[in-house]
Amino acid sequence: SQQGEEDPQALSIQEGENATMNCSYKTSINNLQWYRQNSGRGLVHLILIRSNEREKHSGRLRVTLDTSKKSSSLLITASRAADTASYFCATTNAGGTSYGKLTFGQGTILTVHP
Amino acid sequence: DTGVSQNPRHKITKRGQNVTFRCDPISEHNRLYWYRQTLGQGPEFLTYFQNEAQLEKSRLLSDRFSAERPKGSFSTLEIQRTEQGDSAMYLCASSGGLAGGREQYFGPGTRLTVT
User: Maximum CA pair distance of chain B?
Assistant: First the structure.
């Protein structure tokens, strides 16, 4: 079953704008990861944030985690047409191993117009 | 590092037939995962191996599904007596290695169509 919801389901922006996607989950987690999926490269890992971390950066990506609200956000700054893809958050549950199964959200479809 | 590979990439089969998919993980990874993804949804976990041991199976994995990872290297996923509801993309991922990373590296998937 899906862990939670992602918001918005679809997002359309112009190149150079920032894109923010939100993810909510239901159970306590070990870590939360964001993945990108497009037809050309399949599912690709973007960034991982541990349950004891609040914010993490990687290049143009910024992830925040609020465990009290069971939510996370992914910010992509200065978006490019190549960022067009589906973005998924995925969690590993606190009751299991941090290496175990990922529970994915339903994803946000991001379209960046040149 | 050649990445995770999956074969075949596409499979069309008739209802009631058996199918088998293969996954070759990144060579130094000791953990291997199978997921299933349908259109418009995120991947759903099916099963997980650490080396050759199958550590967890989803309730989605009915008795028609079986997965193996002999010798802790490649893995196979077999579906017996396929049903139209089995049509989906089957994804394999691996993780681990010397760095012991928690991120999973996904293969391109096998798209199954049951007619």
Answer: 43
